[in-house]
Amino acid sequence: MRQVRNIKKPLAAVALIAIVASARLAGAAEIQGVKFSGQIRVGDTELVLANVGLLRYRIFIKAYVAALYLGPGVEVGRLFDDVPKRLEIEYFYSIAAGGFANATEVGIAANVDGQELERLKPRIARLNALYRDVRPGDRYALTYLPGSGTELALNGKRLGLIEGAEFAVAVFSIWLGPKALDKSLKAQLLE
Q: At 64, which CATH number?
């Protein structure tokens, strides 16, 4: 009887490892009840889920979850190269469009020098004009494809496209740059 009990724990551990491994092989992820696909096709480009993360506001309040997608074979260390990438963010609270515009301006300004900021201002203004108010459960996606630009979509509906690899670096820096909006979220997405 004792031998049977000793076998149950290792078998349970093996079963748990198999479940986790099969989820990783599928590539999909779930965080805070929000599911992200393991792969996404954008036009002719396949993007693969790299990592997911949670942003908390004032430590206790869950603000949103995010998923970072990269082109096949692209390591997170090459995120700011001219490679396909996507950041999806699903919100737990309503946020006004103006809040996104303000956060975009502040986030980009924190991560680029003054000259670059001046060059990017017209494109930042175009992106800010695309933002819409969001409600809980809404999902924004920023997708950069080399030679095309950075697309902003809300709940799968394309809102607009901003050209330039340097713009993509600036906008993705809001969450993933040297002075990212939240260090914990950045670490989760880049681990």
A: 3.50.70.10
Cα–Cα distance, 68 to 35 (Å, whole number): 13
- Residue 85: phi and psi, rounded to 5, are -155, 155
Q: Is 177 within the bounds of a domain?
A: yes
Asked if the structure places residue 14 within a domain, the reply is no
Domain containing residue 123: 28-190
Q: Per the domain annotation, does 16 fall within a domain? A: no
Question: Tokens 């995010």 correspond to what residue?
Answer: 66
**Looking at the domain assignment, is residue 22 inside a domain?**
no
When divided into structural domains, the chain yields a total of: 1
For residue 63, CA distances in Å to 29, 71, 142 come to 18, 27, 18
The first and second tokens of residue 158, run together, are 């394309």
pTM of the model: 0.83
Render each residue's pLDDT in the chain as its tens digit; 191 residues: 445 444 443 433 333 333 333 334 458 999 999 999 999 999 899 999 999 999 887 666 788 999 999 999 999 999 999 999 999 999 999 999 999 999 999 999 999 999 999 999 999 999 999 999 999 999 999 999 999 999 999 999 999 999 999 999 999 999 999 999 999 999 999 98
Tell me the residue type at 9.
K
